Each structure stands twice: as structure tokens, then as C-alpha cells.
UniProtKB/TrEMBL annotation:
Origin: domain of life: Bacteria
Organism of provenance: Gulosibacter chungangensis
Coiled-coil residues: none
InterPro entries per the UniProt record, alphabetical: VCA0040-like (IPR007163)
Matching Pfam families: VCA0040-like
Name of the protein in its database record: DUF368 domain-containing protein
Chain segments annotated as transmembrane: 20-42, 79-103, 115-132, 138-155, 167-198, 210-228, 278-299
Keywords in alphabetical order: Membrane, Transmembrane, Transmembrane helix
Amino acid sequence: MAPLPLKVLRTLIDFIRGALIGIVEIIPGVSGGTVALIIGVYERIIDSAGEFVRGIVHLVLDPPRGRGLATVKHHFRQVAWPLLVPLAIGMILGLLTAAAIVAPIVENHPVQSRAFFAGLILIALWVPARMVGGRWTWREWALAIPSAALAFWFTGLPTGNMSDPSLFLVAVAGAFAVCALAIPGMSGSFILLVMGLYEPTLAAVNDRDFGYLGVLLAGMAVGFALFVRTLQWLLKHHRRVSLAIMTGLMAGSLRALWPWQSESGLAQPPGSDAWLTLLWFVIGALVVTATLVVESWLVRRRIANGVAVIPS
């Protein structure tokens, strides 16, 4: 059998990457931004999203002022469409699959699931820590430690549930959740859980409630448009600082993945299933280690990164 062309293989890889992000976004406590960092697409997503937002702003403002569409086209050309399109399709399909399959597994086996994801994220801390570049100074530690404490406090907040939320609250929750999605270590699903909207949102996805989902997506679009340019600027001008904070947020968020918890999210001592739980923790650590090794191999083979490695 002839090998797949490089562009086809790259598209397939990006589709799988998107599916992974979509799957974990349905699980409270697990950050899609973290997975994007692990699989090597985080900064390209943020850069492309920033250019897309600029293009939309100019599309709205420039024609009425007689400025034409030249600036709009410039920004849209900077978007990594060959990456974002398969990534977005994979995310949508992964999210729908997770809502129907993965979420029930997590609900029926919460202790083992949290242990698995805790092992995954603990090893994944190496990704943003390495991306800081060089030896960490006192400044990086001074930012990472309070960030970890903030995430630790936030993930310890009690959760709730609303049976009939207002659409305004749904839009606000979407705006906050998408900001968390863009930050490694902060889970958009956990934001919804804290605001009492996780179960209604999951039900809306499974029931195809397009009215609810449309309002949620509108809130997400507004929140992302307001937030992504700030994040892009920070990564460009304060890269070490930003990545150190992300590392701290990821570390602190591990509190949400302590395997033994009460229904309200309070930590409890280990149970009689400690050894089985430890096994799932190790499996999670091995999975992300294997992912990082494969990603490194693919980059060396010049087939993983469409813009940086393979010309589009």
C-alpha cells in the first residue's frame, strides 16, 4: 500500500488532535488548552484566532468608512486554515462523541477517570515548563507559585446545578468558559460546573437543543474575541512570564482531579481501591508520555507541523 501524501497525513493528524481537544473539553477539570499544548498546536491556534478576530473587526468597521477589504484579506491570509479546519471538525466530532460516550464513563467510574487524567496532566506540566526556555529564574517561580495557588483555590469551589437557567446566564457562562478553554490548566467544563450549567449544557448537546447551544456559542464568541488578542499579545511580548503562569495554573488545577471526592467536590481520603486507582494514574502518565514521544518523532520526520515543518 502506497504511503499517504504528506498533506493528507498532516490533515489526518490535525483532525485527531482536534478530536482529542473536543473529547477532554467535555470533562470537568481537564483543560482543552492543556491538550493543545501537549499536542503542539496551542500557540498556532491562539495566533490564528487573533488574526481571525482582527479580520472580523475590520470586516465590520472598514467598508462603512470606505477603506475596502484589503486589511481584512491580509488578516484572513494569516490564519492557518489548513490547521484550523480539520482541527475544528475534529473538535466538534470529538465533543459530540464524548458527550454521548466518554461523559457516561466518567460519571460511572469517577475515581478511576480522575486518576487517569491526573497522571496525564502531571506529566504534561513538562510541556509549558520546557517552552519557557532555559533555566527558570526567581521571576518565573514567583509567578508560577501564586498561579498554582489560585487554580488550587478555584478548583476547590463548591459546584452546583440549575435546572432552568436564563439565556443571559448561559451567554455569560459561555464567555467565561471559552476564556478558560484558551488557558492551559483552566477547564471550561469546570467553569460551567461551578456556575451550575454543566448538566444543562451536556443535556443540550445530547438533545441537539440548538437554541440553548446558539446562545452559548454567541457568548463564547464574544468572550473569545475580547480575550484572545490579550493572550496573543502576552505570548508575543511576555512569553516566559505567560508560560510560567500557565504551568502554575496547570499544577494547581490538579486539585480538581484528586480521585476521591464527595458529590460536592470535597477531597476525601483514599479508599480501598487505592492500588487500582494508582494503576489508572500510571496509565494516564504513560499515555501522555507516549504522546509527547510520538509528537517529537513526527516533528523530526517533518510531517507534524503544517506551517513550521511542512509548507502549506
